[in-house]
Design brief:
six-stranded mixed beta sheet; alpha+beta; elongated; 12 helices; Immunoglobulin-like
């Protein structure tokens, strides 16, 4: 082909939002650590892409992390020809098929073993020569001791046990290895970046208001953010490293109910810490609660980034970001358990676990189903279908409730917002009555028309199956100054279970 310069036009980089507001979401992260784009007096920011979040300092660069250190003090400089291997069993080593991370592997020459000083300098140099591969760095004190600093992202993982090893397979080099000299502290900002990235992976055209607050006692920040965004948020994900407690679910319901009272309804997801849970069968049954506006996520990645963050922090990372994004991506009537629309594995979330670190590969179907039966939201596998899929979109309420699913809440919330929007201009409007005090036919027709207009588009968009508007013309509006309207909605059903009867027959 002839020489040419080819220009390939990209798309999606601006993260322009969709029409409407069903996708408008918020991520509330409880931590004392603020990224650079936030301050104690400026805690809420709205972004339309991962790049915009990163511009606010929410990156995956382990900002705020304290890296752990270890030291190796040489007591014998050894001789030329000594074979030295320095390794660490770090987070990467826990992934199946991975071995320990090699920090340095070399054979000494005469110049290396002139003194303890040169021997220590050689070890540090060998480690640093491969820093771009393993991320670890080393420095010699100029006497006999090398300090090894962990790679970014290791967090607390190297704080316990004996992860480092210096092995001399041939020769007389010797030294004293001290593990965990400086304890590592994980980056909270990495967790924020993870959930923000997962949100936009599921909903590339989303709109996400991020709020960063210190630990709350009542989750009042839910309404702080909703009010700041003038009620536009339809779903909010909450991340906290506090141990899971049903009392927190109740508190979030109180906040969601307050938002609804103020005509700003939203659905709430919470990701709490389940790391101390050793027996999944002892999880609380969420269907015994009365919190229909709140869902609890308990899934987690089992091998990729979410898994590594879990090991680095020692706390649940969960799937609140991807779940929030899935809700934002779907229609209000969608069940996120629909495999054809909500396949969530993409390198991340291909291998699955629960948020206490229990790998699905080590659990029976009965154990996984038990967590599902208790109303938690997580990702699972379907035999015969590749990928990872949501178990359901449960809320923390009895299964018999009209609002036991997020989709039912989202539909009624959208219908309520729409109807109110169409009726507001008629608030306190004069109502001319018939001579017997009943409502005139044209007045009834006008109000029915307002409600019909509010819901007809939802019906056309398959967000509800059917609806009816009923206004009793005999109601005594003259005495009560109140007009009562009854709206009945037939929702969109979902085939959560499909039963097929199959067998042989002698003829057809």
């Amino acid at each position: 082909m002839p020489n040419e310069i080819t220009i390939i036009k990209g798309a999606g980089g601006l993260g322009r939002p969709l029409d409407g507001a069903d996708f408008v979401s918020s991520y509330l992260h409880y931590t004392s650590v603020l990224s650079s784009g936030f301050s104690s007096s400026d805690r809420i920011k709205t972004v339309f892409s991962v790049a915009e979040a990163e511009a606010l300092g929410i990156t995956d660069e382990s900002l705020g992390e304290t890296p752990s250190t270890a030291t190796y003090q040489l007591t014998n400089k050894g001789a030329a020809g000594d074979v030295i291997l320095c390794t660490v069993a770090d987070i990467n080593s826990t992934i199946p098929d991975n071995s320990v991370t090699t920090l340095a592997s070399y054979t000494t020459v005469t110049a290396d073993v002139a003194t303890l000083i040169t021997a220590a300098a050689k070890l540090a140099s060998e480690i640093n020569d491969v820093t771009t591969t393993h991320g670890y760095t080393a420095v010699s004190d100029g006497v006999d001791t090398v300090t090894i600093t962990a790679a970014a992202g290791q967090g607390i993982f190297l704080n316990t046990g004996t992860p480092y090893a210096v092995t001399v397979t041939a020769g007389s080099t010797a030294g004293t290895l001290v593990q965990n000299v400086v304890a590592g502290v994980a980056s909270e900002i990495n967790i924020m970046h993870y959930h923000v990235s997962e949100y936009f992976r599921a909903q590339p055209k989303g709109k996400l208001s991020i709020g960063i607050y210190e630990t709350s006692t009542d989750f009042a920040e839910v309404n702080t953010i909703q009010d700041y965004r003038e009620g536009e948020i339809r779903q909010m994900g909450v991340y906290t490293q506090a141990a899971f407690a049903t009392a927190d679910v109740d508190k979030l319901q109180t906040q969601a109910a307050l938002a609804e009272t103020n005509y700003k309804p939203l659905s709430v997801l919470i990701q709490s810490d389940f790391s101390a849970v050793t027996d999944l069968t002892l999880l609380s049954d969420l269907h015994t609660l009365s919190d229909p506006k709140v869902s609890v996520t308990i899934g987690q990645d089992g091998e990729a980034l979410g898994y590594k963050l879990f090991l680095a922090t020692g706390k649940s990372i969960g799937t609140v970001g991807i779940t929030l994004g899935a809700l934002s991506f779907g229609k209000v009537s969608d069940s996120i358990a629909h495999p054809a629309k909500f396949q969530m594995a993409s390198g991340e979330l291909d291998s699955l676990a629960f948020a206490n670190g229990s790998q699905f590969s080590g659990l029976s179907n009965g154990q996984i189903d038990d967590v599902d039966d208790k109303g938690y939201v997580f990702l699972k596998k379907h035999f015969g279908l590749s990928g990872s899929y949501f178990d359901n979109d449960y809320t923390a309420v009895a299964v018999s409730s009209d609002y036991a699913r997020v989709k039912e809440n989202r539909v009624i919330d959208k219908a309520s917002r729409n109807v109110r929007s169409f009726l507001l201009p008629s608030l306190a409007i004069p109502l001319k009555l018939n001579d017997d005090g009943t409502m005139r036919e044209d007045t009834v027709a006008n109000f029915k028309n307002y409600c019909n207009r509010a819901l007809e588009q939802m019906e056309r968009d398959d967000e509800l199956s059917a609806f009816s508007v009923v206004i009793d013309p005999l109601q005594n509006v003259l005495s009560t100054s109140k007009l009562e309207i009854t709206i009945n909605i037939v929702p969109i059903a979902s085939a959560d279970n499909i039963e097929v009867n199959i067998g042989f027959t002698t003829s057809l």
